[in-house]
Write a structure and sequence with these properties.
246 residues, 8 helices, 29% helix
């Protein structure tokens, strides 16, 4: 059993959930398109998903034996039962932390996203004091479902390998430090960098990069052009003149 569900019912857990919802309320209205999918069993209200400018929103999750699942679609946790390039936006609310193969899940998300589609990822910072305390408590407890936390730097590296461009990065948390930092300030040189690295959670917004392809017709025209420095025969006055019949 994942004790994080129990912690979210505490006053500090509800406060964290409120601050996370506030961050998503600021970011989701910029998401536009026809279809958006939430992957995972993290509780996000339908009203919050509907705050995006997408026409339809669905939820898909992996069935869990120790907890009921309220998702509309169930899958095996690795292969998404969706066609390629069928979604305009995907949100992964703490979904990579419980995925058996997070790289495979990200590759599937890259496959089902349309060109310039948006990907939103939320996660807990493994370097925060809250995460370190929970890691020690999990080692001392038995029968607790494991949850792995990934740093913001690792998430950014995964996005760059999948040809995603970062759009926004925000950090938030409960207690000290509470620094909802907006913008791409991962390498901020001033004193704010250290407290930001200790923030409890983060949200990342990325856009799928589109690699331009050279049209075949343009390639064919370029191949027909003479090479630089090559000489071309000049037409003579006899070319194109029809001889009279004898």
């Amino acid at each position: 059993m994942d004790d994080l569900k129990f912690w979210l019912e505490t006053p500090r857990g509800r406060l964290l959930h409120q601050r996370e919802s506030f961050q998503l309320e600021q970011l989701l209205p910029a998401v536009r398109g026809f279809r958006m999918m939430k992957i995972g069993d993290w509780q996000i209200g339908d009203a919050l998903l509907a705050s995006s400018n997408t026409l339809r929103q669905w939820s898909i999750a992996e069935p869990l034996a120790d907890a009921p699942c309220e998702a509309q679609v169930l899958f095996n946790g690795q292969d998404l039962p969706l066609a390629s390039k069928c979604l305009d936006a995907v949100i992964l609310p703490h979904s990579l932390e419980t995925a058996a193969q997070p790289h495979q899940l990200l590759r599937e998300v890259d496959r089902v996203l349309c060109d310039r589609g948006r990907l939103i990822i939320t996660g807990f910072n493994p370097f925060s004091l809250w995460a370190l305390r929970r890691r020690i408590a999990r080692r001392q407890s038995a029968g607790m479902r494991s949850r792995r936390y990934y740093s913001l730097g690792r998430i950014v590296d995964w996005m760059s390998l999948l040809d995603f461009d970062l759009v926004a990065v925000r950090r938030y948390g409960v207690g000290f430090p509470y620094l909802p930092v907006a913008g791409l300030d991962i390498d901020a040189p001033d004193w704010r960098r250290l407290p930001a690295l200790m923030a409890q959670a983060y949200v990342v917004v990325a856009r799928k990069r589109v690699i331009p392809l050279t049209p075949v017709q343009q390639k064919r025209r370029q191949s027909l052009r003479p090479a630089r420095g090559a000489t071309v025969a000049e037409p003579t006055s006899r070319m194109g003149v029809r001889r009279p019949a004898a």
